Amino acid sequence: MAATGQAPTATEYIVHHLTHLSTGKQKSIIDFSVFNVDTIVFSILVLWLVARKVTSGVPGRFQAAVESLVELVEEQSKSIVHGDRTFIAPLALTVFLWIVMMNAIDLVPVELFPWIAHNVFHIEYLRPLPTADLNGTLGMALGVLTLMVYYGVKIKGFGGFIHELFTAPFGAHPLLWPFNFLLNLIEYAAKTVSLGMRLFGNMYAGELLFFLIALLGGYAALNATGIMLTIGHVLAGTAWLLFHILIVLLQAFIFMMLTLVYIGQAHEGH
Q: Distance (Å, rounded) from C-alpha 23 to C-alpha 95?
């Protein structure tokens, strides 16, 4: 941040708010010794809150809304996954609700959580949006990859799964085995990376735009003739908030649908 007694510049403000509460400083692009504590805490906290709201007994408004989604998810899973959906349909619903609730953190005023962290817990850095952290979204995508492999082995058997890796899609000729295997590895990698990057990219861009709108409001407050900036700040913030609600829901739905599609493909052979 800026020196004591001085307001931070726009760059310092954005860099500060994009810095995670982590266990250390990352020394390379891939560093498994560093954990983003805020991403872990907020993602688990959101999952716990969702599970706590959906209780047995007289349904509340949240539970009623969840139950209204069950039929939709069941219909989608039935049309995509041909086989036992005992685990898959609840999984898809959980994924959708979990991502919606995590994405919804982006609708909270950008200064609220950092202010609480700084003034109450004396934490300098805090980035509460888990889906704007590539580690979090790729972690979820790796979970989907694990399910793809699991169901591929479960449905086709270990031998059948390995056989498909080497014989599809070009054929079973031994000369084609390396090309088939390489193409299948690329396919699995592309699915995983694109699934995580899509969610991360959209939420990161939305988060960054909220920071820029907040800076516009701060500049208007410091400017004696900033009435037009103030009006622009309110209009821009309101418009982006309303549009971002759609993004929050849409990205969760896309992630859920792709999860169902990939698991459905694991149930089928080439």
A: 27
- Annotated catalytic residue, options 22, 43, 180, 202: 202
| Annotated domain spans of the chain | 10-266
pLDDT in tens, 249-263: 999 999 999 999 999
Among 68, 135, 194, 223, the one annotated catalytic: 194
Q: Look up 198 and say whether it is catalytic.
A: yes
- Per residue in 64-90, pLDDT (tens digit) is 777 778 888 888 888 898 877 888 988
Residue 19 phi/psi, 5° resolution? -95, 130
What is the CB-side half-sphere exposure of residue 261 using CA atoms within 13 A?
Answer: 10
Longest dimension (CA), the chain: 77
Enumerate residues 6+ apart whose C-beta is below 8 A from 211. Answer: 13, 14, 17, 18, 110
Q: Is 43 a catalytic residue?
A: no
Contacts 24+ apart (CB under 8 A), 119-123: 123/21
Report which residue type is found at 25. Answer: K
Q: Could you tell me the pTM of the whole model?
A: 0.89
